[in-house]
Amino acid sequence: MSDDTTGPATDPILLSDALSTFDALWSPRIVTRVNDYDVRAAKVRGEHVWHVHEDTDEFFLVLEGALEIALREEGGERAVTVERGAVFVVPRGIWHRPSSADGASIMLFEPSGTSTVGDAHDEVPAHVDATTGHALAL
Amino acid sequence: MSDDTTGPATDPILLSDALSTFDALWSPRIVTRVNDYDVRAAKVRGEHVWHVHEDTDEFFLVLEGALEIALREEGGERAVTVERGAVFVVPRGIWHRPSSADGASIMLFEPSGTSTVGDAHDEVPAHVDATTGHALAL
After folding, report:
1. Which pLDDT belongs to residue A79?
2. Which of A42, A58, A102, A134 fits a 20 to 30 Å CA distance from A23?
3. What would you measure as the largest C-alpha separation in chain B, in angstroms?
4. What ipTM was predicted for this assembly?
């Protein structure tokens, strides 16, 4: 469980309003909850870190900009580009590294308590927030 | 589990592309999967039916138009309006009826196998598809 956001928000929330409350990059806010999952919003720019979630898939929806996700799959490495209005799910167990050269705003859906840097990761750079999500201060 | 969509899609999917594959109202398509959850897309217009999901919250994101959701809460009945770009979660156990006078496109997250008409419901009108989601034919 993450901070004091323990259930669904009681009113609709504009994602643009949620995003307007913070500027930090790679530092997701928990917008609302669905059962034991978080709906998170994040601003991103530059490179995240290679990491893996061993036990959960991770959902991305791009709200603004474009997100690239590099993936280390059985057949080799590839990258997908997730455009504005597109969704992509990184399967559990797949090492991946999100990045966005020009910046993006994204929505994530993943089990509460999921760390931004996964269960294993390369060295976390200073610009990446290792967190299970911050409470949204609307 | 629903149809043949048994895991995350392997490539990003534009929600607008997904929505362009069908015209049926109140008849969600399964766009991708996140663990044992579906990401569904639906077109809606007019009134759905009063129903309740006893064991799961239900997430709505409005992609186009606006969605109204009437709720029967402990304190009485109220309605929320979910604008384009806004999210709302109906808590488990709350009777609710989505509607959209002018039409909307929406994205849903809910456990795979969740019925569009819940575990209990008023009489289902002909224009409402009682389904656990249809496979997306991209």
Report:
1. 97
2. A58
3. 45
4. 0.93
Rounded to whole angstroms, the Cα distance separating A16 from B100 reads: 22
Q: Which residue of A has its CA nearest to B108?
A: A34
pLDDT at A1 > cutoff 70: no
List A79's β-bridge partners, or say none.
Answer: A70
Distance from CA of A124 to the nearest CA of B (A): 26
Q: Which of A31, A83, A89 sits opposite B14 (nearest CB)?
A: A83
Share of chain A above pLDDT 70, in %: 96
How, if at all, do strands A86-90 and A76-82 pair? unpaired
Closest CA to B118 of B100, B88, B99, B96: B96
Distance CA B130, CA B84 (A): 25
* Rounded Cα gap, residues A56 and A70, in angstroms: 17
Asked if residue A42 lies in contact with residue A106, where contact means CB atoms within 8 angstroms, the answer is: yes
